[in-house]
Write a structure and sequence with these properties.
InterPro entries: MBOAT_fam (IPR004299), Oat_ACAT_DAG_ARE (IPR014371)
Helix content: 55-70%
Number of helices: 17
Largest sheet: none
Protein name: O-acyltransferase
Family: Belongs to the membrane-bound acyltransferase family. Sterol o-acyltransferase subfamily.
Shape: globular
Radius of gyration: 37 Å
Biased composition (Low complexity): 1-34
Function: Sterol O-acyltransferase that catalyzes the formation of stery esters.
Length: 498
């Protein structure tokens, strides 16, 4: 009877629970819970209050910093300012374009009358003859390789200090020096005395210097390869497919002649295939940028330079400074276009033809935190030559890094003076002095870069100001003035003050 009663009671409780609405159910053994969360209630009531009374919500609810303050938590983006600067540059330069057209009309012409026929003849003659010195260097090295084979055959590990070998290598070195000196010397003489137009002379001089540097690299590299061959010393594994003296062939030299590098190696890393689309794009860029440079030079740079002659003659400092600032914009655009045309488009097109694999012709020089970093990153082919054939050997002889750097800058300064002074027929030392002035600038900006990191704003600003906003325009003004003083050319040529 008791069990029946308990069963009936359980059943009634179960039925009562099942029939109870879900919202009112409470487990019999569950702990008691609050009906509502007090915080949620406060927030909802506060929201209803603020919605009803619009003027009471708290604007200043927590401590915060200004966006541009140093103690700001989040770094702001400056994309908007970048867009503004681009727009200002576009609008400002567009105004100069309209002003230039209103003053001068179209100055660009395609007559070709400014080029003398004799200048063009000498250009093609030099372009054909200068590379022959490379092949003379090949013949010299061929004789040296035959001599090295014979010495190696007599003794598996020949002594490079053997008196007979040392005499032979001195004769080989003397032959290379004579060949290289004639190569650059004859080219300089022809450009200075036989080619009047500075543009044609500049192309000839650049070609002569490039071939000359290749000659030096070919001779110096093969000298060390020859010594390593005689001493049975190891060489880089990359050279295994063309060890000395099997690398002394016409095909090997011809590849180096056209390769986009100034540093000779028996073997270079190669790309797997030739891409027609890539090649044609780069060639198109070279053509378009060359036309742009020509147009900007004739339409904008020439009038500014012409209108500077009188002020330079009178040493009117204010007018010269104004001309310098105006020329800086034009020269910067021309120089950037030339950089892209040569290092990005031209060298990549040449590398694609030859399947030349190492195409790091430059790195992000525009972010340079010091002048020294710029010279290491903007022109990698020349930097590689200087580091391999000048800087490293000097350090190997016990020179300090500072002394070796001074020698490198001096060598570069001489080349800059030749590249500018010989075509303009005015070797006045301005380009040389400009390069030598880089030494104190490097000493000034390198500590800034070390203190503030590679993104040093001060060092980067010094680089841009000294190089692109002062150095290049000032050199252009000086050499143009000396050209006008030596050869005339019509003075102002009817231009108003541009």
């Amino acid at each position: 009877m008791a069990m029946a009663a308990r069963s009936a009671t359980s059943t009634s409780i179960s039925l009562a629970t099942d029939n109870t609405p879900t919202t009112n159910r409470t487990p019999l053994l569950a702990p008691a819970l609050p009906a509502k969360d007090d915080a949620t209630t406060d927030e909802s009531e506060l929201k209803r209050s603020v919605d009803q009374y619009k003027h009471i919500f708290a604007i200043h609810s927590q401590p915060r910093t200004s966006t541009l303050s140093h103690d700001s938590v989040d770094s702001p983006s400056f994309i908007g300012f970048r867009n503004l600067m681009v727009l200002v540059l576009i609008v400002g330069n567009l105004r100069l374009v309209i002003e230039n057209y209103m003053k001068y009309g179209v100055l660009v012409h395609l007559s070709g009358s400014e080029f003398r026929r004799d200048d063009l003849k000498m250009f093609f003659l030099l372009y054909a003859l200068i590379p022959t010195h490379l092949f003379v260097g090949f013949l010299i090295e061929l004789v040296a390789s035959i001599h090295a084979r014979g010495a190696k055959a007599k003794n598996q590990k020949a002594d490079i200090k053997d008196p007979k070998l040392r005499v032979a290598w001195r004769i080989i070195a003397f032959a290379h020096v004579v060949n290289a000196t004639l190569s650059l010397g004859v080219a300089n003489w022809v450009v200075y005395y036989k080619i009047h137009h500075p543009l044609i002379g500049t192309f000839c001089e650049f070609h002569a210097v490039i071939v000359w540097l290749k000659q030096l690299s070919y001779a110096l590299t093969n000298r060390d390869l020859r010594d390593a061959f005689l001493a049975s010393a190891p060489t880089p594994p990359l050279y295994a497919s063309a060890p000395y003296p099997t690398n002394i062939t016409l095909s090997n030299l011809s590849y180096f002649w056209w390769a986009p590098t100034l540093v000779y190696q028996p073997v270079y890393p190669r790309s797997p295939s030739f891409r027609w689309s890539f090649f044609l794009k780069r060639v198109g860029e070279v053509i378009a940028l060359s036309i742009t440079i020509w147009f900007l030079s004739a339409q904008y740079a020439v009038p500014v330079l012409q209108n500077s002659v009188t002020a330079m003659g009178k040493m009117d400092v204010v007018v010269v400074l104004e001309r310098l600032m105006k020329l800086s914009t034009i020269s910067l655009v021309i120089w950037l276009a030339g950089f892209f045309a040569l290092f990005q488009s031209g060298l990549n097109a040449l590398a694609e033809c030859l399947k030349f694999g190492d195409r790091e012709f430059y790195t992000d020089w525009w972010n340079s935190g010091s002048v020294g970093t710029y010279w290491k990153t903007w022109n990698k082919p020349v930097n590689h030559f200087m580091r391999r054939h000048l800087y490293a050997p000097l350090q190997g002889r016990g020179w300090s890094s500072q002394s070796a750097s001074i020698v490198v800058f001096t060598f570069s300064a001489i080349l800059h003076e030749l590249l500018v002074g010989v075509p303009t027929h005015n070797i006045i030392g301005v380009a040389f002095a400009g390069m030598m002035f880089q030494i104190p600038l490097v000493a000034l900006t390198v500590p800034l870069e070390k203190m503030r990191g590679s993104a040093s704003v001060i060092g980067n600003a010094i680089f841009w100001i000294s190089f692109c906003l002062v150095g290049q325009p000032l050199a252009a003004l000086v050499y143009w003035f000396t050209w006008q003083a030596k050869f005339g050319g019509g003075g102002e040529r009817g231009y108003g003050l541009a």
